[in-house]
What does this fold into?
Amino acid sequence: MQVNIHEAKTHFSRLVSKVLSGEEVIVAKNGTPLVRITAISAPNGLRTPGLSKGAADIAVDFDEPLPDEVLREFES
It folds into this structure.
């Protein structure tokens, strides 16, 4: 289906419904196709918690205050 820009603005919700049902929608200006409206595909499957466990190391002192010389660098 091809629609002009004015029609796309006026009936955007209807066009989105058509795209989600599998129809291709092209938006044109003066009969020249400009853009295609497409659906974003859904993510594949569910997340698996802990999949990256052990992939990063966190230092024991990661939450200790920074040394004064480092803090001064942020302020300058």
